[in-house]
Amino acid sequence: MDDKNILLMIPGPVPVHPRIYLAMSRPIYGHRTKEFRELLEESIEMLKKICRTQNDMFIFSGSGTSAMDSAIANLVSKGDEVLNIMGGKFAERWGEITQTYGGKSIPVNVEWGTAVNPDDVIASLEANPNIKIITFTHNETSTGVLHPAEEIGKIAKEYDKLLLVDGITSVGGDYCETDKWGFDILVTGSQKCLGLPPGLGMIAVSQRAWEVIERRTDTPSYYLNLKKYKESSKKFDPPFTPALPLFYAAKEAFQLIVDEGYENRVKRHRLCAKATQEGMKQIGFELFANEKYASNTVSAVKYMDGLDDAAFRKTMLRHKVLIAGGQGKIKGKVFRVAHMNLCSEREVLLTLALIELTLKELGFDVKLGAGVAAAQKIF
Amino acid sequence: MDDKNILLMIPGPVPVHPRIYLAMSRPIYGHRTKEFRELLEESIEMLKKICRTQNDMFIFSGSGTSAMDSAIANLVSKGDEVLNIMGGKFAERWGEITQTYGGKSIPVNVEWGTAVNPDDVIASLEANPNIKIITFTHNETSTGVLHPAEEIGKIAKEYDKLLLVDGITSVGGDYCETDKWGFDILVTGSQKCLGLPPGLGMIAVSQRAWEVIERRTDTPSYYLNLKKYKESSKKFDPPFTPALPLFYAAKEAFQLIVDEGYENRVKRHRLCAKATQEGMKQIGFELFANEKYASNTVSAVKYMDGLDDAAFRKTMLRHKVLIAGGQGKIKGKVFRVAHMNLCSEREVLLTLALIELTLKELGFDVKLGAGVAAAQKIF
Questions:
Q1: B7-12+261-378: what fold?
Q2: Fold of the domain built from segment(s) A18-259
Q3: How far is A183 from chain B (nearest CA, A)?
Q4: Does residue B61 carry a pLDDT above 90?
Q5: CB under 8 A, 24+ apart: contacts of A328-333
Q6: Mind telling me how many Å the CA of A158 is from chain B's nearest CA?
Q7: What is the ipTM of this complex?
């Protein structure tokens, strides 16, 4: 199997623009230099635009999880009550990290595949007045659900709680209004809708969050300590040696995103999502996510009776397209197709066509071309 | 200034072999795949050879400091007494991280530029019987000193203390016998003598260290939690999305190192160090490090009277060679020239020749060619 010539339709890592590969492989230069500081300053400025924020932003050499870890390590003190909005593998990760740092996790349970009901959040806040922080997963990669961020932002404001948001698979692909919706922390990662290789985590920190962070004297983190990043960011001098090739890549990727424009980019992602989802339904699949809250960056699709996860994905791979299986408790029950970053009618139509072909090869009675046609109509 | 055509003679990042750039920029593929697991397994196997250990090894997507942070976060509980062997900026970092996690730092002070006296370590261990852990910087990048690791290893063993070693600028360039010298933790980083771009931190964990790590239920780290890495490493399935381009690069870099051979590689680094240091002396410089303990991977050199740090390094840069200034309390007083990774007679002779030229240009009375000749004799 030629793993250098496979179309990635998984929810990260995503295909990377050739311009980014070129930028990434430029000769390494020192990072304690004017050249690097300028690159970092320009990159952060573009990243803030992409994340719709004027808050401080930092880039970690680490995965998206490193940024989630940093958020909790810097904000949650032992015994703090934290409301974790659940509903998927990544939402649960917020809960695990909360407990890692001795926070008391108060979950708001959400059935996987559905969106959180804002009333449940309100009820939990009313029942637990000592809650300080709310964690929220904007777009749940494991279930293909886009949760109602604006509503949650309003509730957090009304109840005066810090709101920590995982925007790892929304930023750069869907609306994600960090400042307008009142996110105190936004975290994201490089290898999703930002179109970079994996290896960078990003974080935006509000003034309200800084007040908590700066009061603390016992932050249990060195590498991901936000105070260190803030201090060194004044001169755009990173506290630790950055993963330079990925920073070279980031500037190029952010430029591509800024050039496309926020509205255009969201529109394209939403169109691809719609086409993918209509195509899937026409083929005979059922979406895993409640349609009203279906994600615009990743579609989770239920397997039809008799369709084996391994056989399906292996056949797709033989056709040189990699799609993702399910995670956690829905492993084997769903597959996931991402429509992120560069994704366009080209990738969507191709994927649907190969899914139809794969089903035929596996002995399913499928009307060839029907899913493709449904998607074509959307485009 | 053309920052894509500068010879890096700084102690990291180092020039990267063209084969590594090629490997790094291959098309991204998924990491939850057989192909990636195989790559990781082969890479870890080579890394263990390079680090002279049969202990478990893991690669973090993060800087060398991320690996130091992980070591302390996973091993030091609140109130634990930790002996921090000092003597440079990176040794002090061990102390800072110790305090971050509530460890009680007991420093063994070492004059910068000299090596630690093993008797001082013994005296501190005798005076503080509750010490559990010793931190040690094998090769101090800020002072150009190679500290006596084998002796410290013997002491740690005799007193039954866990020994945490920063091998960030020794591994891959000098002798670093993790198992034979009894290191419980070895940490290293990608952008020094391993010849990779920055962005990866590596850690080796002994059985004795695991016993402490596994007993703990309150490890204050999620992203750098060693238990998570151990659990997932059974199938070479990383716990979090890895920085793929750097992992592609790592396999190629490790192969280059294994192919050259441990003894050959150390010999080459030692020859380059000797030539650099003899050349510097012949030019009229004094080494900052006590010569008996001068590092084989980085030379710290004292400025002569009247030679200005900024003017010197700026002129060198105009000649397209980047060298490093001093750090911490010796900033402005020394410069540093690394001889790491690909470094050979070519880079050493060139750097000495340009240093001579630079001195001449800055109005110093220097005998042109004398330093170069001293180095040529060594080669």
A1: Aspartate Aminotransferase, domain 1 (3.90.1150)
A2: Aspartate Aminotransferase; domain 2 (3.40.640)
A3: 22
A4: yes
A5: A328/A88, A328/A89, A328/A92, A328/A112, A328/A142, A329/A112, A330/A112, A330/A142, A330/A143, A330/A288, A330/A300, A332/A303, A333/A288, A333/A302, A333/A303, A333/A309
A6: 31
A7: 0.98
